[in-house]
Design a protein that fits this description.
Layout lengths: L1 H18 L4 H8 L3 H13 L16 H10 L3 E5 L7 H19 L5 E4 L3 H8 L10 E4 L11 H15 L2 E3 L10 H7 L3 H12 L2 E4 L11 H4 L5 H9 L2 E5 L2 E4 L8 H4 L7 H5 L2 E5 L5 H9 L5 E5 H12 L2
Parallel strand pairs: 1-9, 2-3, 2-5, 3-4, 5-8, 8-9
Antiparallel strand pairs: 6-7
Length: 321
């Protein structure tokens, strides 16, 4: 009852603040409470998804970087998150994740299926989600998380379950290895009914959320730091001149991904899925610029959320060069 009363008070304060343009002092006087209590109620309303704040700047939208990226790569939309060059990579990731979490609420709704590719970036987004009630929605994991050291269930399932809990959606975990030892094992398992059901859900997804893995990132992608790849695998990445991966499926500098042997053993979906679906790619970190360019060149991105320094580097090195 106490939480319910707090929600009612927060909504009442928010209506007066945002709809009636009353000051916190005027709201405090009318509700017979202190200004600090009103401020806490407004903050509670924002943190719990009771208030949806959107900024529309007619003078700068789309921003210069966003326009250059969308025009050059012919993608649906680019979001460049303002971040000073002096901030750490961790803080940069946090700001991008906060933006992505807020934006996701504006496009994911009831009766939708969200495909999620786990990883450091998506994990950070899951920690900044704002609660939103949806109905008959589903969250499906796009690739397995097991390796020779662990099944990886705890790491991947925690991310998927955060999304499911946040949207009150049904969660569908994908309990298979990230990379199979043999492609034949994968092909046989892919014929099983329980796995086929998950693959069909991936194909039916209305929205995909993912990042790009880069082996040399300042904050290494989890697939590279978590023991998922061996020495032979790293040798293949170098030999094939692979520059990144999406959901553990690798691609080259020109964006192509066919005839790459490690992909035959990968549990992630064929990258054609990302060409045909509305996907939101979230990127943070200069080390991912090459992979980002390759993915954009290969039409593997529909919508992009990226930090400002990375966007600037992409433009300077691949658009203006």
């Amino acid at each position: 009852m106490e939480d319910y009363d707090k929600v009612i008070e927060a909504i009442q304060a928010a209506r007066m603040y945002y709809y009636q343009n009353l000051t916190t002092e005027a709201i405090a006087h009318e509700l017979n409470m202190s200004r600090s209590t009103v401020s806490r109620l407004l903050n509670f309303a924002r943190q719990n998804g009771l208030v949806d704040i959107r900024i529309v700047d007619p003078n700068e939208h789309p921003q210069q970087f966003e326009k250059k990226i969308t025009d050059f790569f012919k993608i649906k939309r680019a979001h460049v998150v303002p971040v000073p060059d002096i901030v750490s990579e961790m803080e940069c990731l946090e700001r991008v994740a906060q933006y992505a979490a807020n934006y996701l609420n504006s496009i994911f709704d009831s009766n939708m299926i969200l495909g999620v590719a786990w990883g450091n970036t998506i994990s950070e987004i899951s920690r900044h989600l704002l609660p939103k009630i949806t109905h008959s929605s589903q969250i499906v994991q796009l690739h397995g998380a097991g390796n020779t050291q662990t099944m990886g269930i705890e790491y991947a399932s925690e991310i998927i379950m955060r999304f499911a809990k946040n949207y009150q959606a049904v969660a569908h975990l994908f309990p298979v290895p990230t990379f199979f030892d043999f492609a034949s094992t994968k092909h046989a398992l892919w014929e099983e009914g329980s796995i086929r059901r998950l693959l069909d859900l991936q194909e039916k997804a209305d929205l995909l959320l993912y990042s790009i893995g880069a082996v040399n990132a300042g904050l290494p992608s989890h697939v590279y730091s978590g023991g998922y790849l061996g020495k032979v695998d790293y040798a293949e990445l170098k030999k094939e001149h692979l520059v990144g991966d999406i959901a553990t499926v690798f691609f080259r500098m020109d964006g192509s991904f066919n005839d790459i042997s490690i992909n035959e053993r990968a549990s992630g979906p064929d990258l054609e899925l990302f060409k045909n679906k509305h996907g939101i790619c979230v990127i943070s970190g200069l080390a991912k610029v090459r992979g980002l360019y390759a993915a954009l060149k290969g039409h593997l991105i529909t919508e992009l959320i990226v930090d400002e320094p990375t966007a600037r580097s992409l433009i300077d090195n691949y658009i203006l060069s």
